[in-house]
Design brief:
This is Twin-arginine translocation protein TatA. The chain crosses the membrane at residues 6-24. Keywords: Cell membrane, Membrane, Protein transport, Translocation, Transmembrane, Transmembrane helix, Transport. Residues 46-74 are annotated as: Disordered. The protein has a domain at 21-48. Helix content is 77%, strand content 0%. The protein contains 2 helices and no strands. It is elongated.
């Protein structure tokens, strides 16, 4: 069962009465700021990880050394 237009209008009116127009716009502004902050944090983390990968020299583990054939012995 889908809500009718009247039911939606009644719920919207009750929300406006309970919270007021200013409080709802303030909450939406806070939600927007939170989303922007989240996106900024994600991009900063990705940039830090990529710059860290570029700066670190590649190291060979002991397991990789033993698995690689020794070319000087032939």
């Amino acid at each position: 069962m889908q809500p009718s237009v009247w039911q939606i209008l009644i719920v919207a009116a009750l929300v406006l009465i309970l919270f007021g127009r200013g409080r709802i716009s303030e909450m939406m502004g806070d939600v927007g700021k939170g989303i922007k902050s989240f996106k900024k944090g994600i991009t900063e983390e990705e940039e830090a990880a990529s710059s860290k990968a570029k700066l670190e020299p590649k190291t060979i583990d002991a397991a990789e050394k033993s698995a690689a054939p020794d070319k000087t012995a032939s």
